Amino acid sequence: MAQSSNVKPRIHIQEVGTRDGFQSEPRFIPTADKIRLIDALSLCGLSKIEVTSFTSPKAILALADADEVLRGIKRQPGVVYTSLVPNLKGAERAIAAGTDELNLTISTSETHNLLNLRMTREQSVARLFEVVDLAKATGVTLNVSLSTCFGCPMEGPIPEAVVLGFAERFLNRGVEGISLCDTTGMAHPDRVRQLCGAFRARFPQAQLTLHLHNTRGMGLVNALAGIEAGVDRFDASLGGIGGCPYAPGATGNVCTEDLVHMLQALGHPMDVDLPRLLAAARSLPELLGHDVPGQVMHAGRAQDLHPIPGSLEAIRERALGSTSNPG
Ligand code: COA
Ligand code: ZN
Fold it and tell me: Which residues are catalytic?
């Protein structure tokens, strides 16, 4: 369903920095700091926040405090608090800690699934179907993130039929949302338009999220291609941090505040408070102990003009003097 009128669609922004971003940070971020950042993000008008992941602490040590973080945050009405889970144990922990949504993860690449989740894709499907059945009995909503949809760094392109086939199996089982994930930034705009358009045509009722990484500098242009194909929900990470520790060459997500800055400039209605988001992004370098890729946080918004230097009048006078008296 391509956009045909001039009315720009409302876009929903889903923050994943405290999960996709923090999961690969080498330094453990103290639990209280994670909670403080999520509480600040909760006031930014985001539709969803992926708070953490309930994975094995042996696999993702950086998020070993998932239970305390989810229990410790101050929730704001209107924000959906979601948690990534790979298996039933993770789902039980996330539900006990009060998650609104479970974000189940499986890779569309067999190789990446084995590396990331230590099981075949079919084993993952079987385990995640158990999670779906559990969730249906408890009332939490369900999203499935399909990794490497736009290409696997080890296998190469993943056929569209494979991606849509996994989406269909989960949607038929009762999952509300699907995220098409470009785990290592292998997508380009034509591919995004093709896959998202095909998804929209086949599953018009499903909630579709596009999860982009900016690994090769195409994050924002891919987001625009997604909007052309009918996408109105994006995962993004504050400061552009992120990357899957089990995917070679993975780097950060499309940057939340850069994406919002672009979409607001283009006139897309959205509820996000960009100045608040920028303030949160600017707290990241100190929190993480290193700089982050976000650009608007460094450059300022395009409309934030710099003061005119006091020397301008003298420059103008000299310039006018030289043009009126060229000899
Ligand atoms: N939460 C906490 N502990 C968990 C767990 C979960 N969700 N799932 C498994 N465990 C524990 C088990 O209890 C077991 O502990 P023990 O050794 O003390 O008995 C141990 O982890 C191994 O369990 P097993 O079922 O054999 O898992 P595994 O070693 O095959 O790992 C996953 C499978 C899926 C749990 C693990 O690979 C994982 O958590 N991966 C997450 C990857 C990820 O998030 N990647 C980035 C996002 S795409
Ligand atoms: Zn990701």
Answer: 244
